[in-house]
Amino acid sequence: MSDYSYVADRARQAFSSVARLEGEFARDPGNFSLQINLTSAKRMAEKIRHDLMRTAAMNGVEVCRYRLIPRFSDGYALAAVAKSLLTYQGLFSQIYDVFKSGKKERARLGLEAIEESQLDFGYSFSGSLGVVLLAKGERDILSMGKLDAPIDALYQVLDVSSTDDVRDIAQSMGNAVVKRVYDWSSTNAESGFATDVKWQRSDGKLKGQVVEQERLQDIAKIIDAASDVRERHLDVHGTLVGIDTVTRVFHFVVSNGADYRGRLSNEFGSDGNIVVPRIYKAKITEYKSYKFATEKIEARYVLDFLRSSDIGPTQTI
């Protein structure tokens, strides 16, 4: 690993020299000496980059080239760049955690998953804004790496074209991964970035693609429109506090503190005159809607049937 650290440090220095000389040459484009030095520095940086790739493969290190391409200007707001990288780290770690410990309902990570999927800064390179990120992987005797499946899955979850696709990803990889995809895509879309993310795995395989800003915007919109609705039928015993058969709304309170407000179903019925307030046995359908983009849960209730209890009437509807 010491050889790898040495080559990585050389790469940082080499690409830093290229960036410095590019800046000087931009200010003095007629300087022939600077042009020669810049050409030489680029050649050296490229040679060291190849050395780094080879050494990374020998040490089981996975290499990610992460590039932001601005659509509207050449500027890079620090907050936008930092948020892009942080949300990408969150997405990658959340996907890794699926393979390590199973899918999650909420976008939360344990310390072990964070540490094992951590992306370290390697060096920056010219051409829009690009950085090389490094992740320590491990390969078994069959050359299977612990980060192979997460890297493959990373590109699969970006292949979203409908709300059904979103629900399929949530079913297979968990709601948390969908939330992380939304965070990353919306962050870059709002900042006006296209992204060019390529992984060179330590087994020599190259994975990656450019995701245009419009496509990132589409992904965010699709996820924002998607929700998962779950239906549950409840048999409860409590007090009918209020009901209006004209506006078709009700209010029902259970003795343990549960409070249900909602609408009457189209097939609503009862076993006699409805009296309020009065104790009833009620059949209520609960619809819980989970918004993937915000992780918010909204519940609505529909009253299907009322069966009178033994308590006497107070007010007849």
Explain what this protein looks like in three dimensions.
- This protein has 3 domains: 1-59; 60-225, no CATH class; 228-308, OB fold (Dihydrolipoamide Acetyltransferase, E2P) (Beta Barrel).
- Helices cover 42% and strands 32% of the residues.
- It is built from 8 helices and 10 strands.
- The strands form 2 sheets. Strands 2-3-1-4-5 form a 5-stranded antiparallel sheet, with helices on both faces.
- A hairpin with a 3-residue loop joins strand 2 and strand 3.
- Helix 3 (78-101) runs antiparallel to helix 7 (175-191), helix 6 crosses helix 7 (175-191) and helix 7 (175-191) packs across helix 8.
- The longest helix is centred in the first third of the chain and has 27 residues, at 32-58.
- The protein is elongated and about 100 Å long.
- Mean pLDDT is 87; it is low at 312-317.
Spatial shape: elongated
Give the strand content. 25-35%
Number of self-contained structural domains:
3
Sheet with the most strands?
5 strands, antiparallel
Radius of gyration (CA) equals 29 Å
Main structural class: alpha+beta
Q: Helix and strand succession? A: HHEHHEEHHHEEHEEEEE
Number of helices: 8
The beta-strand count equals 10
